[in-house]
Amino acid sequence: MLYLRSALFMLLFSSLTILYSLSILVAAPLVSECTLGRLGNAWSRTSLGLLRVVCGLDFTVTGREHLPTQPVVILCKHQSAWETIALRTIFPCLQAWVLKRELLAIPFFGWALRRYHPIAIDRSSPRQALKQVLTQGEASLKAGRWVVLFPEGTRVAPGQRGHYNISGAKLAERTGAAVLPIAHNSGAFWGRRAFKKKPGCIQLVIGEPISSQGRSAAEINRAAADWIERTVADLPAPVDRRR
After folding, report:
1. Burial, 120: exposed, middle or buried (Cβ in 10 Å; 0-12, 13-18, 19+)?
2. Averaged confidence pLDDT in the chain
3. Average pLDDT of span 189-197
4. Which pLDDT band, with edges at 50, 70 and 90, does 243 fall under?
5. How far apart (Å, rounded) are the C-alpha atoms in residues 187 and 111?
6. With 0-12 CB in 10 A as exposed, 13-18 as middle and 19+ as buried, what is 165?
7. E-assigned strand segments in 55-178
8. Domains of the chain as residue ranges with CATH
């Protein structure tokens, strides 16, 4: 049953993503950036609702009171594909994501993604990638966009800690923007490269903004990484609700 539910979700999710991608491509030349962002947020909300109904996988968010009014650099734990869907609707409509450039080549989804001012990096060229994050990230913050990064670069299994790339912290140091750390336990329900989605409730925690004033990039990065890893470790173990 778990496999069938997961297969049905992926079928419906793929169809939904194509439909929204086409809508975004049509709307992009006609509407404002914020309106286009709301359309992306609607895709996120609808996808999460589909996940809840079909797979029994819901989520909760704590720490919303920590959301600032000004654009920030978001540093988020990366355990599964779930957060790449969910973060879109949790934060304001103007966002710029740091992502691998190969994603832009995905039919429909990647084409629509191009309309959201992504910072598409070549991970095989770290020096050039850092330059892109700093220059394009600064431009995005000035334009009122929240810059979203997964500092570990790739998904890591629950209980593991990846290397936290310093590019997001360097962007905060350079611009004076605060860093907003995000922790969650999505990998316990939707694993890395896993097809099955386990029922349950993902817990996402928004931390207090970390000021970049008077701090080096290394200090900012360490503070964010330590908070994220400590918070993830403190999240209660998920209850097995397979059916």
Report:
1. buried
2. 94
3. 86
4. very low
5. 27
6. buried
7. 57-62, 73-76, 95-100, 119-121, 146-149
8. 2-234 (3.40.1130)
